[in-house]
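Weekly structure sync, notes
Attendees: PL (lead), two postdocs, one rotation student
Agenda item 3: pending single-chain targets
PL asked that the sequence for the first pending target be pasted directly into the notes so everyone works from the same version. It is reproduced below exactly as submitted, 102 residues in total.
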Amino acid sequence: MKCLTLIVHASAKRDVADRLRNISAVSGFTLVPCEGHSAETREDVFQNVRDRVVGYVPRVRVDLVLEDALVNGVIDALKTNEQERARIGIWFVTDIQKTGTL
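Predicted structure, written out during the meeting:
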């Protein structure tokens, strides 16, 4: 099992959620509000005056638990037409040792 994590600008939340809902391999995902800062933040096309003054940008973290074989397909589906869009965020994949319910 893998955890695919996306960190996207808060304004892209609805678009990313809509795209994920249309990918059959995705059975669910978690959205968490967060804030980000990096050297690249200064050149973020989504950044507004408030973000520049405060020094960080509102973001959303999206976590998906997927079977190993599905990860690349989901990433590819999310990248569809990405060349025509401004970059909206980053992604990374981590291993999940165990899962369960409480």
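Discussion points:
- The domain at 2-95 is CATH 3.30.70.120 (Alpha-Beta Plaits).
- The first helix runs from residue 13 to 21.
Action: rotation student to compare against the earlier draft before next sync.
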